[in-house]
Amino acid sequence: MRGKKLVIALALLAMIGAMLQGCGKGNKENSPSASSSSPASASSESPKASSEENVTLKVWGDLGNQAVLEEPFKKINAAFAEKHPNIKLEYDFAQNDQSLNVALQANELPDLFWVQGDKTAKMGEMVKNGFLLDLTPFNLDLSRYAESEKAYCTVDGKIYCSLPSFFDTNVVYYNKDLYEKNGLKAPANWDEFVAGLDTLKAAGITPIALAGKSEWDRAWPIFAFAPAFANDALKAAQSGDGKLTDPAIAETLQAFRDFADKGYFGKDFLAQDYTAAQFAFTNGKAAAIIDGTWSNATYVDSGISLGRFPVPNKDGKKVVQSSYSNFMTYAVSSKSEHPEQAAQYIAFLNSVEAQQILEDAVGLVPTLKDIVPKDEGVKELAVFDEAGVNIYTVLTALSSPESNTADVLMKDVIPKLMTSAITGAEGAATLDKAANYPAK
């Protein structure tokens, strides 16, 4: 996660599905099934569990997060190679939106590549069009995982990727030195949070660095505000028991506009990219940045006196966006010539050994009890009262091939809120118009 970079509009997915329907059906016929030759179990970490034939697997890593993931995946892949000397990995950080789209259109996927599970409709569309290998027949050991983690990888009752083992959310990373210098501490409630931003602005410090140029990174404040303000309203909208015009949702969007209007994001945030926003925070020009838990290692490595807190609501309750990390959730192409060996790599990604390597390097919030948190900072990331909904996931669920509600938020509503072109209530009305509510 940052899984955020791989999000494709449902309209594009429908187009790709139409273009490739024929070859997609052919891929499904090549997938292993219980009635075909029985694959060796991938639950064992011994190379004896699959053929001893020397093979090469082409694997695509997350290009957008290469800086964070390169070192841990070198170690993960080295550990896998020790256990499976007959399997050579050609692991390249080659995957982004563009490269994946090209590979799908050409039907030339690598053996393995990362997916976002049920966080978006993308994996389901790839399954529908025959691009992914059903991993169910390989008898992966899923005993360590909760049902929600299995559901992340499941389409129509079948498993299609390695399972998530880390939790993603958005928090406020803050410079403890700047906060203490200005008589501030981690806020107990929303009003205290806003009052602290006013204090910082009055002192000539940008309260929150924001990457206004980056479609995803400028959205993180709304992703953090939404569960704090409107968790119940978003749940009701997703189930069809409510609407996106709920006042709590309008208030969420208005809070984001208010932050822009009041100068909490600084003067030039509209022209600022993600790298510049991070640099403004780490060099002390901005007192805080709202970002994902996946970026924790970046801020730790900067050397600043780092603190973290979830956005509190008006009552002081800390309800955070919940999402599974896709840093280790990989799928296998249905056209892979080495499905058994690819399944062995999936099995290793599912192991505590591989997961602990990533945790020790990056410092994510584990969802499995046998993964040891890297340090006290990771524990601080997990200090919240409730794991709430992910507004993007809710809006994706309310989308249709004709109207992608999540895309409307990202490409229409947020830019207009940042430039004061619409109010929060108008933004909520725009989302409501785009939504496809479930029938009741």
TrEMBL record:
Record-annotated membrane-spanning stretches: none
Keywords of this entry: Signal
Keyword Signal attributed: yes
InterPro entries xrefs: Bact_solute-bd_prot1 (IPR050490), SBP (IPR006059)
Pfam families documented for this protein: SBP_bac_1 (PF01547)
Region (Disordered): 25-51
Low complexity composition-biased segments: 29-51
UniProt KW Transmembrane keyword: no
Matches recorded under SUPFAM superfamilies: Periplasmic binding protein-like II
Domain of life: Bacteria
Signal peptide: 1-20
Protein name: ABC transporter substrate-binding protein
Organism: Cohnella boryungensis
